[in-house]
Specification:
Length: 177
Amino acid sequence: MDTLATVRPASGGKDSQYQSDYAALRGLHSLANDTGITILIVHHVRKMDAEDPFDTVSGSTGLTGAADSTIILSSTGEGKVLYGRGRDLAEFECAMDFDPGTCRWSDLGRPCDAFVSETRKAIRCALKDGMIHPKEIAEHGDLDYDLCAKTLQRMTEGGEIEKGGRGHYRLTPDPHF
């Protein structure tokens, strides 16, 4: 259903925002369960950013609480990211690309792998190949040592990689696999 507003019942005015939002989906949720079908509802996100993408759903948490699963397509500075979470759905996050010629979306993998600078790609490649020290990482990726060291620091602070000890780095395991 595109969009929720087209099928949403009018609010009684005395309900809280949460109760109103939850009630808006309760009937559709029952219909889906009773008939064994999936009902996909398109809804808007707010423009203000949030640490948790599910906090960007326009309205209260009653909407995400009533739905069995919530999937959000958002725009970041690097590109499009699809987030998903639900009762029978393992949480996921993947970078996406839209091909206007075929009108199809493609899964590009983890955003930290898909939307990175050439320096970060070279560092990740070196780490995958077993390099752990900044000097060998820089040499493996044909990078300037100072740029490599600073990028390693930023990647560690951002949680992309881990520092395993003095001068030892490793990739952060993907929690979704």
